[in-house]
Amino acid sequence: MRRLLKRITGPWQEYFIAAYTVEFGDSVVGYAKISRNKPRTPWDDTKSVIKVSFKGSTAKDALIGAEDAARALIAEWGHEGRANTMPMGLGKRARTR
Question: Which of 28, 44, 87, 95 has the fewest C-beta atoms lying within 10 Å of its C-beta?
Answer without folding.
Answer: 95
